[in-house]
Amino acid sequence: MSEQAAPQNLPVRIRATGPEEVRRLTAMIRAALPDATFSVQERVEDDKGAVAVVVTARGTHTGQVGGYAPTGRQATVVIVSSLATRTSAR
Length: 90
Hints:
InterPro entries: Cyclase_SnoaL-like, NTF2-like_dom_sf. This is Ester cyclase. Pfam families: SnoaL. By secondary structure, this protein is an alpha+beta fold. The protein is 16% helix and 32% strand. The protein has one domain (19-83): Nuclear Transport Factor 2, Chain: A. The protein has one helix and three strands; from the N terminus they run αβββ. The protein has a three-stranded antiparallel β-sheet, with no helix packed on it. A hairpin with a 5-residue loop joins strand 1 and strand 2 (51-60). The longest helix has 14 residues, at 19-32. It is elongated. The termini are far apart.
């Protein structure tokens, strides 16, 4: 793929459920963007303690990810995560 034809936005959706899958997703991002910095852009909490978070990871795309070869360019990954609190049975 030529540099001019390289996609600017890569719409990749990955569902990570549970701590192990989140660790695997984080490792995948770190492999693709080894110099990535992560920033929380937005955090919303409901009255029951469930939380939604938007995080961005920015770094240099030097590793393979989702079938896309490294470009050497700066890249941003947007991560939208929802977390629910566990309630104990009473």
